Amino acid sequence: MIRGAFFDIDGTLLPETEPRVPQSTKEAILRLKEQGILVFAATGRHLLEINDLPLSDIPFDGYVLLNGQLCLDGSHQVLYDNEIKGSDKEEMLQIFRRKDLPVMIIEKDRMYINTVNEMVEKAQFEIHTPVPEVEEYKGEKIYQFVVYANGEVIGSLKEKLPHCKITYWNSNAVDVIAKDGGKMNGICQMLRYYHLTSEEIIAFGDGENDRDMLSYAGIGVAMGNAGHSLKQIADYVTGSADKDGIRDALRHFGLL
């Protein structure tokens, strides 16, 4: 019996073509809520970004943010956090301060960058989000770094960060989080708090950072716009977000 549903945002709730939640998705999620099924966001984004997106019609019961690094309940109270520490943090802070690469730092209440170039502007434009302000690090907990680069640069960076994992979310940008992080880890914390098991949840995603989440959930659904490798590990492949994919998958599993 499904008692919880976890949704990635970009490319899942929000179509790649435009930043709006399809009406069929809104109606489907409200029907889940009417049945007593809890609804969660599971995203690489920060709450500050979510608040600027057209998601106010989605009554989330909780949030798995920053790829599992920060988990909030429906009232935005922190349930779990997993900061980046040690030598990896110091390595990234050196890069940030030297401005070797554009690097965004993400804390609980702040998101800011060290320098801006065309790669940053392009990546942020593609996710319909403004370029962050240029600011300095002041000693707060860091939950995620975003590095705007690709290819050999990212390969070299991985060698310098043995205690972190790096995941592309754009062809020119990666998320850097603690090695024991990830959406699955964040979801585990949420299930513990809400007294659910993995077999009682369905999860939807389209990106590589959704892989562990889809594998962990009782039902893992890949969107039609997902890559081939993600579709291979999913329990079901549905249509893309702008083709009523979420509604159709929920119908397929008898949840609507």
From TrEMBL:
<protein>
    <submittedName>
        <fullName>Cof-type HAD-IIB family hydrolase</fullName>
    </submittedName>
</protein>
<dbReference type="InterPro" id="IPR036412">
    <property type="entry name" value="HAD-like_sf"/>
</dbReference>
<dbReference type="GO" id="GO:0000287">
    <property type="term" value="F:magnesium ion binding"/>
</dbReference>
<dbReference type="InterPro" id="IPR023214">
    <property type="entry name" value="HAD_sf"/>
</dbReference>
<dbReference type="Pfam" id="PF08282">
    <property type="entry name" value="Hydrolase_3"/>
</dbReference>
<keyword id="KW-0378">Hydrolase</keyword>
<dbReference type="GO" id="GO:0005829">
    <property type="term" value="C:cytosol"/>
</dbReference>
<dbReference type="InterPro" id="IPR006379">
    <property type="entry name" value="HAD-SF_hydro_IIB"/>
</dbReference>
<dbReference type="InterPro" id="IPR000150">
    <property type="entry name" value="Cof"/>
</dbReference>
<dbReference type="GO" id="GO:0016791">
    <property type="term" value="F:phosphatase activity"/>
</dbReference>
